[in-house]
Amino acid sequence: MALFSQWEYKGGLWGIWKIEESFAELRSRLSSSLPYEDELASLKAEVRRMEYVAVRVLLAALCGEEKQILHHSSGKPYLADSSFQITISHTRGYVSVGLHPVCPVGIDIEYVSHRVEKVVSRFLRPDEQANSAVLQLLHWSAKETLFKLLDCREVDFIHHLQVMPFAVSSEGCFSAKEYRTPRQQLYEVRYKVHPEFVCTWSLSVLSEN
Q1: CA neighbor of 102 nearest in space, from 203, 175, 1, 209
Q2: Is the pTM of this model over 0.90?
Q3: Which 3-state string (H, E, C) describes the chain?
Q4: Minimal CA–CA distance to 157: which of 142, 167, 172?
Q5: How many whole angstroms separate alpha carbon 32 and alpha carbon 43?
Q6: By CB neighbour count within 10 A (0-12 exposed, 13-18 middle, 19+ buried), where does 167 fall?
Q7: d(CA 117, CA 110)
Q8: Residue 33's pLDDT band (boundaries 50, 70, 90)?
Q9: What is the dihedral angle through the alpha carbons of 116, 122, 128, 133, rounded to the nearest 10 degrees?
Q10: Cα angle 150-153-158, degrees, rounded to a multiple of 5
Q11: By the 8 A CB rule, do 162 and 125 touch?
């Protein structure tokens, strides 16, 4: 199928792709000019191979051309041509990508499941309000988004990241704060709620100083 969803936010490009094609169909959308086959050869699990090609098909759809994705030693992705800051996420049947020409970006997508209720003690603070699976997933997803933005080691989702109270809707925004760095930055986190997934995204506005 075509893009499931595409939008702009604060000068960035963002998109979600629903994977309904076969691996062969997705692979056929990519040229052979980039080292796809070498990278695919290192991926043994079929789901990872599907996510690999789907991410690159989505990236090409957002940019209008194919671009090579590389990774820092930390695992953080970047584009070989440095044309955009990039963030990537995937969940069951979906991949998501965020791009910005200047600002660091973060995106996360999570499949809707009640399994999150079993691990809330790992990420939910006592002062955070999340009494449903969707709210819990949004808290988890937002903290994953902030984790990508911070690009720091040893980030504790309970002690270093806080989601401020908000009323959940099908889409909207809320505030979240990090306590991991001296800046203790407050972020605006945007979100979408779909019957099959929740998605959050944000960016770091660079200081002019």
Answers
A1: 203
A2: yes
A3: CCCCEEEEECCEEEEEEECCCCHHHHHHCCCCCCCHHHHHHCCCCHHHHHHHHHHHHHHHHHHCCCCCEEECCCCCEEECCCCCEEEEEEECCEEEEEEECCCCEEEEEEECCHHHHHCHHHCCCCCCCCCCHHHHHHHHHHHHHHHHHHCCCCCCCCCCEEECCCCCCCEEEEEEEECCCCCCCEEEEEEEECCCEEEEEEECCCCCC
A4: 142
A5: 17
A6: exposed
A7: 14
A8: confident
A9: 0
A10: 75
A11: yes
One-letter amino acid for residue 39 of the chain: E
| Amino acid letter for position 54 | A
Residues 140-165 pLDDT 10s: 999 999 999 998 989 999 999 999 99
The position carrying tokens 């401020």 is 164
Q: What's the one-letter identity of residue 20?
A: E
